[in-house]
Structures are given as C-alpha cells and as structure tokens.
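Human: If only I could read backbone structure tokens as easily as an amino acid sequence. Underneath my words sits a plain record pairing an amino acid chain with its backbone structure tokens. Take your time, and here it is.
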Amino acid sequence: MSNSTYTLYGWHLSYFTGKVLCYLNYKQIPFVHRDVDMATLMWRIKRKVGAVVMPVLVTPEQQWIDDSSRIIDYLEQRFPDASVVPPTPVQRFASYLMEAWGDEWWVPIAMHTRWSYPENYALFEREAGSALLPKLPAFVQRRAVAKVAATLRGMLHTVGVRAEQFAVMDQWTTGMLDLLEQHFARHSYLFGERPTIGDFGLVGTMYGHLGRDPWPARELIAPRPCLRAWIARMAKAPIQTHAVLLTDDAIADTLSPVFRAIFAEFIPLLDGINQQVKAALPALPPDRALPRGLADVEVPMGAGRFRRKALPYTLWMAQRAKDVYQQMSADEQQSVRDWLTPLGGASLLALNVPRLKLHGLRVTPDQNSLPAR
C-alpha cells in the first residue's frame, strides 16, 4: 500500500459506511476498503477514536477519523477538486440540510425495513459473520453475529421502530420514495447533474439498507427505476468535471414537496430534541457527554404521528447546517431566507441550539458557549 492511500474500515451493509464509500469512489481518492473484524472494532477503533463505531478512515499519516460527516469534511480540504459543496448559498444550505435529514430522519426507516423482515437476516448473517470472524468456523461466526444483531435490535425502540408505528412509517416511506422517483426522473442528482453532500447524506440509507437488503430492494427500490438508477450512479459515479448544478442557484420544483416534508417533520424533531437538551444541561457535570438518548419526542410523519427517543447527536448535524448559514454574507443569508420562507422552513434559522462538540456517538456542550453556572 502506497503512502498516499487511505484505509476505510466499515461494512457494505453499514448505513454510514455506504455514504463514505460512495464519496470516495466519486472523488477517486486512492483507498483500501477493509471489513471490520472483531478485534479492529472492539479494540483498535475504540482505542483510536474512543467509541465502537464504523466507518473509520485512516489517513496516510495514521490519523484515525470517525463519523461520516467529519470524514467528508476532512477529505474535502485535502481533495478540493470537484467539490461536493455547492458554491452558491441556497444550494449549499439546502445540501447540508439534506445531509442532516438523510443521516438522521431516515435511520428508523432503514432499521425497520431491515429488521422487521426476516428474509433480510441471511444476508446480514453472511456478510457480518465473515467480516467479524473471517477465519473461524461458520457456527462461531453465527454466534457472534447473533450478539451483534441483538444489540442492533435493541436500538429499534430508541429510534422509533415500534409495531404500533409500522403503518405510519410504511405509508410515509412509499410516499417519499415516490417523490424521489419523480425527481430523479428529471435530474441525475438532487441539485443538478453532479452530486453534492446532500446526495451523499441521502444515499446512506439507500446504499446500505434499502438498496441491498432483499425485502426493501425488491419491494421498494426495484419498482422505482429512476431512484434505483440514482443509487447505482452514486455507488460508481466518476468525477464529472464539466457537469453542472442547476443554474441561478435554483432548487428543482420536484424537490419542493420533499423540503416541505423536511420542514414539517424534521424541524419539529430538532426542536423537541433541543428542548430536552437544554433541560438536561444545568445538571450535566462539566465536560461530561449528554446521554446517547433522552426521553421520547413526538413529531408529525406524513398524515400521522411518530415517536422516538431524542438523540442529541441529531442537533450536531443541525448545527453543521446552521454553521453554513452563519458563514454567509448578509446578501447570501437573505437568499436562503427567501427560499426557506415560502416552504415553511424559516423556523429552522430561529432554532437556538447550544454549541455542541462531537465525541463518537455522543455530544458534549461547548463550555465556552454556556452561561455561567
């Protein structure tokens, strides 16, 4: 392996590994993809980044970076050509918002379509088993996978995968996939003819879960050929230096109903999490991380209501999008407000989120931004 090669640790069936794999392939960054075995996951990664997570990128200088968004941020600095960050304000802000929505809102959908349908388990067992314990007998691999599967299933209630909500989730999923199918029938990517960070945020659930697991791939993706073609482009698309985003900083009309849904559903989720985080901060010891999950928050989902635990990490993703807005000039900020307001999204800018720092899957408040105790 040359000194200029990166190493990505992660599984193809991993939500966020798929996001980074698609990005690395698009940017044509030299890398080696390695499945994560038990020793790497439980000891090496935990020692290097402080948490049992994937994906993790190891740089040629032996720096270990976790979290898909931080990995992409790091690589964008080192490989600025064919940037996935739009140069114009509305598309740039919309793209980061789409990344946050893809990373956070779709998690229960991905978990539901995987774990609520037993036919998916054979693929998970085969791929996870060979990755975790590649040199051990199949029966040992199956036992290890069963423990991993039990851990993941234990997260279902936290993210809202609850039997009484299946009908609401299923109806929302088919409706949203139909909207995306209509968009990709007219556009190669979310904002034009080349992908942005918003595309990579959305593709995580499509690449690792809906597009590969047998049940959703057959029932949800196969009937939507334009969406399926977008997933394929995201997985293998080479850099297209002459491909352009929509002119005049435009957002396609076909995305208007998608963003209306984001503002009607995802923003209330952020608000509910924000309220709980603020309530928890006064009792939080200095430099301690917030719990991974807080109490339930209830928000709209399509025509129904949806409950899940409040995850403070989600606010860190919202903070990324708001930081993009704060770094703009006054005229650029006005352009973003002019786009948000007719779609019902102006309340996002008014969301007063405490400054947060990321550590693994948890966040800690920035002590410098908190009022004196």
Q: What stands out?
A: The chain has three domains: 6-78, 89-111+163-369, 120-159. The chain has a mean pLDDT of 92. The beta strands are 6-9, 31-34, 56-58, 64-66, 296-301, 304-309, 356-359, 362-365. The first strand starts at residue 6 and ends at 9.
